[in-house]
Structure formats: structure tokens, C-alpha cells
Amino acid sequence: MDTVLLSRLQFAITAAFHFIFVPLTLGLSILVAYMESRYVATGDRDYLRMAKFWGKLFLINFALGVVTGITLEFQFGMNWAEYSRYVGDIFGSPLAIEATLAFFLESTFIGVWIFGWNRISPKLHALSIWLVALATNLSALWILIANGWMQHPVGYVLRNGRAEMVDFWAVVTNPYGLLKFAHTVLSGWIVAGFFVLGISAYHLLRKNETEFFKKALKIGATFALVSSILVAAVGDFHAKEVSRTQPTKLAAMESLWETTNDAPMYLILVPDPKNERNAVEAIGIPSLLSILAGQKEIKGLKEFPPSERPPVTITFLSFRLMVGLGFLFIILALWALLKFKTIENATTLLRLLLWSIPLPYIAAQLGWIVAEVGRQPWIVYGLLKTADAVSKAVEPAQVVASLVGFTLFYGALGIIDIYLLAKYARKGPEPKEV
């Protein structure tokens, strides 16, 4: 394997592992803030116990997320020096704002929340976790603005052999980046909703603190349902933006080979990239693809040189699985709310909710596969190819060594994370005060 492939593999592994922690942090911070606010508003100590119980799980996840995120930024200088040289003037700005504004705010107020119990007023304490939730989601905004620019570069000129920013506002308001932010953050909220649903289901199956976990389950189900519906709505807008700015990605997502007017969408489809066709096309819904893409004519992959087409099968399958899981989340969350009054007796549903905890994580990873693999062979779409972005001074053996090291280190962190989350999730909340 060459340096480009090894560097891509290393970044994919470290980014995917980091994104195990990010989505739960995005959503669980909001849920903990809501639970504590309910305690402040009602005086119901069950909500205080909820805030402390789910807050402990949030802190475990947050700490490991910070550790795993640090290595990503180093890779831009180590493995992707040509990329950093070419677009660093633009890409570095939102990342610098994220570090100096959002992460600073997040780190400061999470300290206040951890050590402020019984030291500041309940209202100020609840405010501190809301500020953590705001900063956490604001941090995602700046990172996704940077990624959105890679997907659809705007506000730049090519000068002195590199891209230089000329319109910061255009970069910040890039529709691709804002839609990507909304889609990614909402998917994180789904992760958190099903995390609360699954752990609540675990305790309800064991008849442990039934009323407490019924309250938590209702909060998680409502949050998951609303977030799932919003993800579908934002996804529709995002598909139209992809159609406008990344026609090769859209064609790969739907395995469309021929340019088509009023393009149908096939519910059953098997790509055959080797022969530039589909081996199976069945149950086509007339014009649906054109309607969803917001364009009458959809360009097929044959319109583009083979060297500029993304890998079709993995992009197509990842997209279809992500969408299918999205509809499943709506069904499960709605089912949980409809069965809420007798949920403690709905054994089958509770088991489904428990075993569904990993599914939103999988859906989020699939979304990133669609976004990043579907952009290939470009690292900045239409501007800089991935093969031209890798560091020239790095040898394959060096990347292999760091890849093995990162994989072992991250594997150990993953085991620690699962162990700690499982331990404290099974333990349950603090006992009621007598």
C-alpha cells in the first residue's frame, strides 16, 4: 500500500473512532441540561437524580472524546502537509475559532458543573450545563463549516499556488456546511435519545426504579422521535444541495449510470460498477429521484471520467442503510411513546430498545462514509485531489507504524469506555434520600 492509501486509512480509523464519542456528547449534554432544569422548575428530586446519573455517563464519554480528537489535528501537518499548505489559510480559521471560543467555553463551564454542586445556586448550576451543551454543539458548527468548505469550496481565490480566503462570511454561511451541521448534530441527538432509551429499557426489564426510568424513557423517546423526524427533513434539503454541488456523489449514492430526465428511484438495486451498470433494478418509483434532488435532469456517472468517480458500491450501500435506519428510529421512538403507560410490561419492545443502542452510532458512521468516500477522488471537491494532498516527506513505513500505534491505543480507550459506561449504566442512579 502506498502513502496515500495508508494515510487515508489512518485518518478514517482515527476520525471514525473519535466520532463514536462526539454524537453522544452533542445530544446527552442537552438531555442532562433539560433534566436539571426540570428539577429546578419542579423541585422533583427524581430529575436531580437523573441529571447526576446521565451526567456521569456524559462525563465519561466527554473525557474520552477530547483525548481521541487531539490526534486528528496533528495529522493535517504530519500526513497531509500538502493539503495544509494549499488550503490552510481557509481551513485553519474555523478550527481556530472552535478551539479558542467553543472549546474554551465548554471546558470552563464543565468544570463549574462538575465542582459546583452545592456551591452555587441550583439555577446557576443548571445554567452551567446549558452553556456546556451550547458550546459542545457550537464546537460542531465550526468543525462542520470547515468540512463543508471541503465539500463545496466558496469565498476563495487561487493565488501563489494555494487557495486563499477572500470572503470569510461566504465560508461561514456556506449552505453545504450549515446543512451538514444540522444533519450531523441532529444525528447526534438521535444517538443520545436511543442511549437513554436503551439504558432505561435495561432497568425496566429488571423492574429496577420503574417510575424513575419510565420518566427517563419518555424524555429519551420524545427527544429521539423529534430528532429523527428533523434529520429526515434536513436530509431532504441536504440531498438537493448535494445534487447541485456534487453531482458525482449523488449519482454514486443512487448508482445512476445514465443521465436521466425524471429519474426514478429503485427500491431494489444492485450496482455493477465493473460493467458500469446495475445488475438488478426493481420496483422503480417514477420521477422520485428527480423530485428528491430538486432537478428534472440527473447526471449519470458516465458523464464523468472514471478517474473522477467515487467508489459506487460502498457509497450506495452506506446511503441506503443510513436512510433505512433513519426510518427505523422514527418507528421505534414512536412505538415507545405509544406504549408508554404500560412500557414496563412491553418486554419485546424493551429488548428492541436495549439492542438498538448501537444502531444510531452505525447510522452516523454510515453518513460520514457517504460524505467522505462519496467526495473522492477529491479532498476539496473540484479543487484538490486526495492523491495530491498527502505529505511528500512521509514514507509508508512511518504511516504503518503510527497507524498500528493509534489502533492499539484507541482500541484500549474503546475497551475502557465501554467498561465504564456499562458499569455505571448498570449501577443505576443514586438511592433516593429518605
Structure write-up:
With 434 residues, the chain is mainly alpha-helical. The protein contains 13 helices and 8 strands. The strands form 4 sheets. Strands 1-2 form a two-stranded antiparallel sheet. Strands 3-6 form a two-stranded antiparallel ribbon. β4 and β5 (277-285) form a beta hairpin. α4 (122-151) crosses α6 (175-205).
List keywords for this structure.
434 residues; mainly alpha; two-stranded antiparallel ribbon; 13 helices; 8 strands; globular; Cytochrome ubiquinol oxidase subunit I; iron; transmembrane; transmembrane helix
Biggest sheet descriptor = 2 strands, antiparallel
Alpha-beta classification: mainly alpha
Separation of termini?
64 Å
Write down how many β-strands occur, each being a DSSP E stretch of 2 or more residues: 8
Note the total helix count: 13
Would you tell me the overall average pLDDT?
Answer: 87
Order of helices and strands: HHHHEEHHHHEEEHEHHHEEH
Low-confidence stretches: none
Rg of Cα set: 23 Å
**Spatial strand arrangement across the major sheet:** 1-2
Tell me the strand percentage band.
Answer: 5-15%
Net shape: globular
Please estimate the helix content.
over 70%
InterPro entries: Cyt-d_ubiquinol_oxidase_su_1
Keywords: Cell inner membrane, Cell membrane, Electron transport, Heme, Iron, Membrane, Metal-binding, Transmembrane, Transmembrane helix, Transport
Organism: Thermodesulfovibrio autotrophicus
Transmembrane segments: 12-34, 54-76, 96-115, 127-150, 186-205, 217-235, 314-337, 349-371, 399-422
